[in-house]
Amino acid sequence: MSEELRLHEGRSLAQALEEHLAEWAERTGIAVEIWALPAHDVSPSTARAVLATLGEALANVESHSGARVVSVAVTLGPSGLRMTVSDDGVGFIGPLTGRGVTAMRTHFAEVGGTLGINGVLGEGTTVTGAVPHRG
Hints:
By secondary structure, this protein is an alpha+beta fold. It has helices at about 15-30, 45-65, 100-110; strands at about 30-35, 70-75, 80-85, 115-120, 125-130.
């Protein structure tokens, strides 16, 4: 089960992500490459969805992947928010099921987004989520 990540008052989504990723890397010994963090903040509900999904994804990396490196990118553009979490672990074949996968998809669905998980056996797993811009 993932630890819950929360936004604390006064911190942006980018700050919360950066701090959590640094703490997670130190605790697990798995290196984290941050490719991109959002330059602007997002709605509280979208921030919660990103943080909760990242927590689940990292819990899966730690528990199942055997990865040495995790790469994270969260970007915000005209079309909306995109999040990518990739690892260099064992990967998988076939569809993924389970509470963690369902929770990640639910977090993004609750804010109108979608989430996909792709794995290549022996090469790692990538979790990709998108939340379209509203209004």
